[in-house]
Amino acid sequence: MIAAAHMTFPRALREHARVRPDRPAYREKYLGIWQTETWGQAYETVRLLACGLASLGFKRGMTLGIIGDNRPKLYQAMLAAQSLGGIAVPLYQDSIAAEMVYVLQNADVSFAFAEDQEQVDKLLEINEDVHLLHNVFYLDPRGMRNYQHDHIKPVEDLLEAGRAFHQAHPDFFDREVDLGTPEDVCVILYTSGTTGRPKGVCQTHASMLGAGHGACSVDSLSDQDNTMAYLPMAWVGDFLFSMAQCMASGFTINCPESRETVSMDMKEIGPSYYFAPPRVYEGLLTSVTIRMEDASPMKQKMFNYFMGVARKCGAELLDGHDVPLPMRLLYGLGNLMVYGPLRNTLGMSNIRVAYTAGEAIGPDLFRFYRSIGINLKQLYGQTESCAYACIQRNGEVKYDSVGKPSPGVEIKIGENSEVLVRGVSLLKEYYKNPEATAESIDREGYFHTGDAGVIDSDGDLRIIDRAKDVSKMADGKVFAPKYIENKLKFFSFIKEAVVFGAGRDSIGAFINIDFEAVGNWAERRDIAYSGYIDLAGNPAVAELITGCIEKMNQELSHESMLGHAQISRFLILHKELDPDDDELTRTRKVRRSFIEDKYKVLIDAIYGGLKEQFIETAVRFEDGRTGKVSATLRVHDTKTFPYGGTK
What is the pLDDT of residues 103-128, one digit of tens each? Predict the structure, then answer.
């Protein structure tokens, strides 16, 4: 493992090329075939890309935009910019052109790498108005033959220019790499912007590699491990896993052919290390549930029986606890007949460590994966802390906490139960925003996360909600919307939820159904539907969701802190909440205030006692066109239960 001290990303790459030149660094599936690039080859590619950029005037302190799905050359482009003292600025590949303008302008991006024609078209649309980009390089030439733009070139042209530059200046690249320092900014990652303009988080080589080194040490990751890179490159989680931990340990990065083939590609490659937000684990479990509904009665009975065995002892066996021999034998039989094939179906046969972060994960979901032998753990952090603040250790996994502070990190609870973080992984500053930097980092060097939490007797951190979202109901009792929303999303039929109750007498909710799961459920009951709106408005679906909410209400009634916060009325939205409609961020965080304004008429219907409400909503389609969808939504009442505070 490469030590973090005195190291930069380019120096780490150079060291890997020296120590393990023939070990695989990157794999990419292209046209159905896995292509492998060794550390020695990756180093040569980065050197040529860097020299090519230098030949065009890219200098220390400049920024390089990165737009596309996970591709080895996009990661290598970031390393090339860093080799010259530049800064990588990855953007969300599913952003529309207008959303990219702010980031590109704010970060002063004039050089960019784009994956394909789709991303190039977005940049062309932007450049017609703001003339930001002087050099754009694309990876995939399909559809690009007739593009006649002097500033848009295939990446092969840049590599050729780099080859000529390196021959003329053979010492240039190593000299530039040696000039870099650990305190240089290596990447600017933009926050999701739930309440306003995204902020550019400046992370240094020291902070990112410090986080990568610490995370690798917890799980003893080495160059023998490999992981799947499929999450947005603009998200801090991907940078931590696919850049920082990769460079700290030397493990292999696997890039799937497309976002649609990730599951199949995982089965082929068999990663040993895996990371996904809860929604991915939820989606995988939903697909398993749907498949089991298609299985024969005998298979269903066997599955349910052995899953009962797994719930009793699977997690205990994973943690190395004592389990009676008969139960061990029964679990071994279940592993042969159910758990092993199930892990293979999920592409997780070889996984020894898996993580989730970004949102809370439900205890039942957590238990399911651990019970079938997948070592799923949680980590906690923000873009500002390299997604590296707390991490769960083997044998110390709790379902209601995010673990103890990560190596090199301190945690304390401040005023209003806010979680404060200090240590190796903190940002250097917000780009061009000294006021926000001063507001977020106090005089003692603690970053104010904005999350409310508590530290338990074992020293583990438990997150309650966003501090700004924790409020009071009309009777003065605590209201934590995100906590309730996450509990609702643990049901496979519920994809998204938004709850309301601040300053009110009761809790109301908007629900987005999971179209695939509910659609499968409806088809099995011969319920006809023509699309999302039709399915969401079906009375039988309303009964299904009512049952889910009432089950959650009953579970919530046993909790001392939020037993009173049970949902009494809800409606099923006629459309899915969508980042393109500004209702969610690109990381699928709810823009709460925007939704409250946009759907005020529906909130008024819930709290006004109405039984139905008509609404017409503007939507934006994938091709940029706009339109409207309308429906008359039913408001449903739900049963609530006595709780600890009720006499």
Answer: 999 999 999 999 999 999 999 998 87
